C-alpha cells in the first residue's frame, strides 16, 4: 500500500472513531511500527490528527475546550513538576480521586508502584495504569466526551457520591479570590466538586498562570480546599494569593 493510501486509511478510520492505535494499524496495513509512526508524525505535522501515547486521536471540533493531549502541552514543565510533587504526597493504602485535568494526568507516571486505589472519570488516566500491578483503578461511568476521553453526567456524580476517598487531586480553568475556583466546563466542574466533597483532603494542582482569572462556572469556594500545589512565579500579585491561602489555613506547596 502506498503512503498516500495509508494516510487516507488512517484519516478515514478517525472519521468513525476518535482513536486509533499503532498496533492495529501495523497489523491491518501490514507495515512496520516505524512506518506507522512516521505516517502519524507526518499527518500531525499537517494538522490532520493528534499523536498520543500508543496511537493517534482525531482533532476535536469543539473550540472552547482543548482535548487532554493538547492541554498537556500548555505550561508543560510547570504541570509536570506539579504532578510529580503531588504524586509524592500519595501513600500506600490511599484511595484517591483524580479528575480529568491535564495537570493531574502528569501524576500517573509517578504513581505506578504505589499500592493505591484510583477513582477517576478520565479514560486516559485509567489506561495509564493498565500495566501497573499495584494500582487498582475504578473508572466511573457516565456519558463519554469523545474529544477529551472523560465521562460526565448524572451517572458519574451518582457513582462518585458512593465513594469515600482519602485524597482528591484536581485542577481547574481559573482561580481568583473573589470567585474561588471556576471552570469553563459545567460538566467537569460538577465532577470536581463531587470529588472534593468525597475526600478527607483536597489537593488543587494549578500553575500560577491561572491565578487571577475567572471562568463562568463556579466550582467551589477556596475555603473548602486543604492544599494548593503550584509553581514559583515572578508575578508581583502572586504574594497576595499566598497570603490569602495562609489566612484561610490552605497549605501551599511550591514546586521549584
Automatic annotation (TrEMBL):
Q: Which UniProt keywords apply?
A: DNA-binding, Transcription, Transcription regulation
Q: State the Gene Ontology terms under molecular function.
A: DNA binding; DNA-binding transcription factor activity
The record ties this protein, via Gene3D superfamilies, to: 3.40.50.1360, Winged helix-like DNA-binding domain superfamily/Winged helix DNA-binding domain
InterPro entries cross-referenced by the UniProt entry = Carb_Metab_HTH_regulators (IPR050313), DeoR-like_C (IPR014036), DeoR_HTH (IPR001034), NagB/RpiA_transferase-like (IPR037171), Tscrpt_reg_HTH_DeoR_CS (IPR018356), WH-like_DNA-bd_sf (IPR036388), WH_DNA-bd_sf (IPR036390)
| Positions of the HTH deoR-type domain | 3-58
Official protein name in the record:
Transcriptional regulator, DeoR family
Q: What is the originating organism of this protein?
A: Tissierella praeacuta DSM 18095
Amino acid at each position: 500500500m502506498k503512503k498516500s493510501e495509508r494516510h487516507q486509511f488512517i484519516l478515514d478510520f478517525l472519521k468513525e472513531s476518535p482513536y486509533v492505535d499503532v498496533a492495529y494499524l501495523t497489523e491491518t496495513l501490514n507495515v512496520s511500527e516505524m512506518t506507522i509512526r512516521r505516517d502519524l508524525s507526518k499527518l500531525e505535522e499537517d494538522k490532520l490528527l493528534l499523536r498520543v501515547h500508543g496511537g493517534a486521536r482525531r482533532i476535536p471540533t469543539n473550540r472552547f475546550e482543548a482535548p487532554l493531549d493538547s492541554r498537556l502541552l500548555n505550561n508543560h514543565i510547570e504541570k509536570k513538576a506539579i504532578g510529580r510533587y503531588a504524586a509524592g504526597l500519595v501513600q500506600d493504602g490511599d484511595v484517591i480521586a483524580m479528575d480529568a485535568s491535564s495537570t493531574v494526568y502528569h501524576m500517573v507516571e509517578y504513581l505506578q508502584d504505589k499500592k493505591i486505589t484510583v477513582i477517576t472519570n478520565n479514560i486516559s488516566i485509567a489506561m495509564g495504569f493498565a500495566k501497573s500491578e499495584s494500582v487498582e483503578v475504578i473508572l466511573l461511568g457516565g456519558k463519554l466526551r469523545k474529544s477529551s476521553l472523560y465521562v460526565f453526567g448524572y451517572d458519574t456524580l451518582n457513582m462518585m457520591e458512593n465513594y469515600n476517598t482519602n485524597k482528591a487531586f484536581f485542577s481547574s480553568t481559573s482561580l481568583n479570590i473573589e470567585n474561588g475556583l471556576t471552570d469553563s466546563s459545567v460538566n467537569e466542574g460538577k465532577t470536581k466538586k463531587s470529588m472534593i466533597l468525597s475526600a478527607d483532603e483536597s489537593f488543587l494542582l494549578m500553575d500560577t498562570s491561572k491565578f487571577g482569572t475567572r471562568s463562568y462556572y463556579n466550582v467551589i469556594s477556596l475555603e473548602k480546599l486543604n492544599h494548593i500545589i503550584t509553581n514559583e512565579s515572578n508575578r508581583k500579585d502572586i504574594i497576595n494569593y499566598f497570603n490569602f491561602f495562609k489566612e484561610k489555613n490552605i497549605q501551599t506547596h511550591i514546586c521549584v
